[in-house]
Amino acid sequence: MNAQAVERLNLENNLRTALDKKELFLMYQPQMDIKSRKIVGVEALLRWQHPEMGLVPPMNSSELRKAAG
After folding, report:
1. What's the pTM?
2. Kind and range of the H or E element at 9?
3. Fewer CB within 10 Å, N side or C side of the chain?
4. Helix (H, G, I), strand (E, B) or coil at 20
């Protein structure tokens, strides 16, 4: 198995237990109307704080969630 496949498998396995270990958290990002400069909504973003790797970039964690089902 190549290094990328092993890394992905490890991340996927860690993600499966992240909720139980309380490593996932929400961040809220405002949505702004450019013209009025007012907040018109918010996005809730799920983030993963891995104990060894730190904050897992959204691209990596979102791809893993899709792959892991």
Report:
1. 0.66
2. helix 3-18
3. C
4. coil
**CA triplet 22, 26, 30: central angle to 5 degrees?**
170
Per-residue pLDDT of the chain (69 residues; tens, 9 = 90+): 688 788 888 888 888 899 899 999 999 999 999 999 999 999 999 999 999 989 988 766 566 666 655
Whole-Å CA distances, 43 to 16, 27, 34, 54? 24, 8, 16, 22
Burial class (CB in 10 A: 0-12, 13-18, 19+), 15: buried
Is residue 25 within 8 Å of 47, Cβ to Cβ?
A: yes
DSSP at 27: E
Give the separation between CA 4 and CA 6, rounded to whole angstroms: 5
